[in-house]
Amino acid sequence: MISKLPNASVSIFAKMTQLAIENNAVNLAQGFPDFPCPPRLQELLSIASQRGFNQYSAMPGYLPLREWIAQHLESTYHVKIDPIHEITISAGATQGLFSIISAFVGTNDKVIVFEPAYDSYGPAIVLQGGIPIYIRMREPEFDIPWDELEIVLRTQKIKMIMVNNPHNPTGTIWTMQDFIRLSDLCRDQNIILLTDEVYDSMVYDHQYHISGLQLKNYFEHIISCFSFGKTLHNTGWKIGYNIASEALTKEIRKVHQFMIFSVHYPSQVAIAEFLQENPNFIQEIKNFYEQKRNDFYSIMDTSKFHFLPTKASYFSLAKVPDAKLNTMDYAVQLCKEKAVATIPLSAFYHDHYDPHLIRFCFAKKNETMISAAQNLIN
Ligand code: PMP
Ligand code: GLN
């Protein structure tokens, strides 16, 4: 049998979660909250099913949810998005990203991916016959190497650039100047800019998220993906959405309709009603997670880890004290011997480049973080 993904194995998130279960370890590896999503949201899900929302929803998603999203984007990012033609509800950002890549990337099309990168990007490109062009962000700040990017854009024909902002796993954010610089470089070649913004509501220290959608002069070439899983503490519901101009959305939906047609209907209804009832919930997420991050740093103060400051997302990177060990082995050892599961940063590089950093997720109850800290000193 010829594998279409010969280099792929079980995702690092599934692998480390399994290892955490086997070793009865505290799971600070996979990015999901260990506290419940709002009880009212759970109740609305059950009510939606009882009210009969159990068959297919409209192909692009439940219209009141799309209308809520349009209003939210207008009040947050001052952009006018048409809920009928420019918003598609996806089964999490993962399926949104996959259908977008399938819609636009064909055989030998090159896609720039900045590393460290979320694990689904490369395989989604390769499955379409595309070629990921990996560009490593520069340590220790994980900046974009603009000079290198300029050379790639000057010398190669590029179809798409993927930007994850806020960034998993480094917690860095893009400024408007970064986006302007990028769009200026892309303009002549009509490159599609795909922004993965699943952590858009989690930017701290009085800084703001800049959405790709705010690049008004480049809007016709931008597609942005979001996820409710992060903002509503329900990663298992797998509801996200993508935004693009009508012309791009038409192409995305051609794939979406054959990949999934529509996504879980009662979840869409429950989310729309919950957000209408709780108009400030998403704005408050920022304060909630900023507090979590601060609690995490003070709880972990007793550990030997030195954390790199994180500006966004619910992840923080820490230096590995023993740089002689391969970080994958180090993370496995930490899980088995200290009962704390983390993610080695090397898993976010296609060539397993190893910057000797591990990722901790702080979307956890404080008691979970305290258990982890105790395990680390014992
Ligand atoms: N992009 C990034 C950067 C992520 O961290 C994740 C996972 N949370 C996703 C996309 C996928 O999101 P979803 O769970 O909504 O599919
Ligand atoms: N996004 C989550 C993370 O980075 C995990 C998603 C998954 O398990 N595929 O940890």
Q: Can you give a write-up of this model?
A:
The structure is a single chain. With 378 residues, the protein is an alpha/beta fold. The chain has 2 domains: 12-37 and 281-377, Aspartate Aminotransferase, domain 1, CATH 3.90.1150; 39-277, Aspartate Aminotransferase, domain 2. Helix content is 40%, strand content 14%. The chain contains 13 helices and 12 strands. A 7-stranded mixed β-sheet has the order 2-8-7-6-5-3-4, with helices on both faces. Strands 9-12-11 form a 3-stranded antiparallel β-sheet. Helix 5 (121-127) links the parallel strand 3 and strand 4. Helix 4 (92-104) crosses helix 9. The radius of gyration is 20 Å and the shape is globular. The structure holds 4'-deoxy-4'-aminopyridoxal-5'-phosphate and glutamine (GLN). Glutamine binds at residues 11, 13, 30-31, 168.
> Could you tell me how far the N terminus lies from the C terminus, measured between alpha carbons in angstroms?
48 Å
Query: What pattern of helices and strands is seen along the backbone?
Result: HEHHEHEHEHEHEEHEHHHEHEEEH
**Main beta sheet:** 7 strands, mixed
**How large a portion of the residues is in β-strands, by DSSP E?**
5-15%
Q: Report the CATH superfamily of the largest domain.
A: Type I PLP-dependent aspartate aminotransferase-like (Major domain)
Under CATH at level 1, the class of the largest domain stands as: Alpha Beta
Name the poorly predicted regions.
Answer: none
Attached small molecules: 4'-deoxy-4'-aminopyridoxal-5'-phosphate, glutamine
The strand count comes to 12
What is the average per-residue confidence, as pLDDT, rounded to a whole number?
A: 97
Indicate the CATH topology of the largest domain. Aspartate Aminotransferase, domain 2
